[in-house]
Amino acid sequence: MSNLVILPILIPLLAGTILLFFPRQLHFQKWISVIALSLTTISSIVLVQTVFNNGIQTLELGGWKPPFGIVLVADMFSALLVLTGIVVSFTCILFAFKSIGEDREKHYFYAFAQFLITGVMGAFLTGDLFNLFVFFEVFLMASYALIVIGGTKIQLRETLKYVLINVISSALFVISVAYIYAVLGTLNMADLGARVAEYGQTPLLTVIAILFLVVFGLKGGIFPLYFWLPGAYKAPPYAVTALFGALLTKVGVYAIFRMFSVIFTHEPQITHQIIAVLAGITILIGAIGAVAYSDVKQIIIYNIVTAIGVIVFGVVIATEIGYAGAIYYLVHDMVIKGALFLLAGAMFTITGTNKIKEMGGLIKRHPLLGWMFFLAALALAGIPPLSGFVGKVLLTQAGLSEGHYWFVAVMLLSSLLVLYSVMKIFLNCFFREEVLTEKEEKGSIKGLVYPSVILIAISVFLGVGAEVVTPYIMQAAETLADPTAYIQAVLKE
Amino acid sequence: MKVNDLILQTVTTILSFLIITFSIYIFFAGHYTPGGGFIGGLMTSAALVLLLLAFDMKTVKTVFPINFMTVSAIGLLICVLTGVGAMFFNAPFLTHTFGYETFPILGETALATSTIFDIGVYLIVVGVAMTIIQTIGESE
């Protein structure tokens, strides 16, 4: 029993509630947001350290024993994602302070952001399938509001599509939960895992597993279910896109990891084979999209798709090293996608456009922005001293030792294309002759760069300080590779 | 032409009291019989909607000078705080307790902290339903 596990959910929820009372007091809104996010960050650091020292932490809500009550579980995988998620959202909110505009702020922007964080943290920490659905809805509702707030034409159009897709996938989610409840009679994930292990994974359960793959594939943006993502993420302002790009798709990925490492592990030749093919195509599609566009926002959005493919393949490899690589890459990707979107947001503030062709020579007056973007680009592609390297090395190593040669080939090829796509932005926007004179710049980026400096510093630390980070990652990978530890921690048999 | 809605308005003044009373009854009955915070709140907002239909927006606003957004925020706060309250007694979040008290008129009554949680739900439902209806009603 430890109420520590609920704090990352509870603090943003309380803060969001308090923010509802005073929509007009903008200073108050900002202060409460900062205080709540700092408290959440501290509590998730404590959570990571507690899990590291004392093993998996569980909290039986209301004192009801699992599988009868709702249980919150923090193993190292959840705890790391909670910490990364909260740090990235913190920087996105700091970015929003300067960039989002008074009109949006007065329409409950910060409250919705807090509710979004509540939902994401809840989805990472819950140990109950229906509760996972509820937390998905919590952050989806908040994301609907965040994507439409401001009410420009493109936002309204894309929100319609986004809501439609997510309503359909949520309905599928409920149907899948109903099926699995009808077959196994329980909704607690650990109990589900134990029962599937006991009775065997029947063909019916395999079908349900694939249904879940469709659901979380829709949420996470896997080929062929990624089609809504480029449009929907292009619509809102950069602070919101950064929040979405760093958090929302990753929750779908997290759910795939949970489902296919704890519950549906017994027919890998069917389920994991399908995931393997889809992940491979996802990587290619993302890389092709990133190379094809000449729009800064669109390029980074397609890089999200590529990264999803790379991470999801960790489930297919299913060895400790493979999981470790995927988790490392997941943590790195949340940080670096946040950083890239925030930097692109600063570039948009200066130039007022997303088109590469209409920018040029930014490095002369904004050297910090330029070199930060350069570092982020290298980290994204996986150049050695930076964070993307370690994850990809581990994935390559595990992929080769398990005989997934074509996956390794696709991943390494995609790294080149990803590097090409972001370097295209760097070379064209920051070098070449200047397009805008000082007077023609659309806005000042005072205070807009330092949130991404924080993220890039973390990314450098993840790469250079791999020795410090690896024990945590390996502990997370251990519990994923051997779900019995998770099941025993929850059910206490 | 001015529409005479005397009958509607007279009936509404009586009926809305009945509906609100019934919604409060249903709210408190929720622990042992069908009912509870959600349906109770929905029925209360139904009474308010009836008032909106019979009179106009301004009249209802002078009768209930409440910002319904705040109502749902208060409800949410109550819900969260009942959960937090348990943490002060070193119990897991959302642990509920109950006890029996004897009151002068009511006699021995079971009191449960889950009722406080339900009051929160009730306020959220009333607040959200009324915010939706008023916002749509006011927008041109």
From TrEMBL, chain A:
Keywords: Antiport, Cell membrane, Membrane, Transmembrane, Transmembrane helix, Transport
GO molecular function term, any single one: antiporter activity
Pfam families given in the database record: Proton_antipo_M
Claim: Metal-binding is one of the keywords in the record: no
Official protein name in the record: Na+/H+ antiporter subunit D
Annotated GO CC locations: plasma membrane
Keyword Ion transport: no
Protein's cellular compartments: Cell membrane; Membrane
Membrane topology: Multi-pass membrane protein
Transmembrane segments: 6-22, 34-52, 72-96, 108-126, 132-151, 163-184, 204-229, 241-264, 270-293, 300-329, 335-356, 368-386, 406-427, 448-474
Cited InterPro entries: CPA3_Na-H_Antiporter_D, NADH_UbQ_OxRdtase, ND/Mrp_TM
NADH:quinone oxidoreductase/Mrp antiporter transmembrane domain: residues covered: 127-417
From TrEMBL, chain B:
Organism: Sutcliffiella cohnii
UniProt cross-references to PANTHER family, sorted A to Z: NA(+)/H(+) ANTIPORTER SUBUNIT B, NA(+)_H(+) ANTIPORTER SUBUNIT B
Keywords, comma-separated and alphabetical: Cell membrane, Membrane, Transmembrane, Transmembrane helix
Broad class of the protein's primary localization: membrane
Protein name: Na(+)/H(+) antiporter subunit B
Similarity field: Belongs to the CPA3 antiporters (TC 2.A.63) subunit B family.
GO cellular component: plasma membrane
Classification lineage: Bacteria, Bacillati, Bacillota, Bacilli, Bacillales
Cell compartment(s), UniProt: Cell membrane
InterPro entries (alphabetical): CPA3_antiporter_subunitB, MnhB
TM region positions: 7-28, 34-54, 66-89, 109-133
Residue ranges annotated for the Na+/H+ antiporter MnhB subunit-related protein domain, each copy included: 7-131
Pfam families: MnhB (PF04039)
Membrane topology qualifier: Multi-pass membrane protein
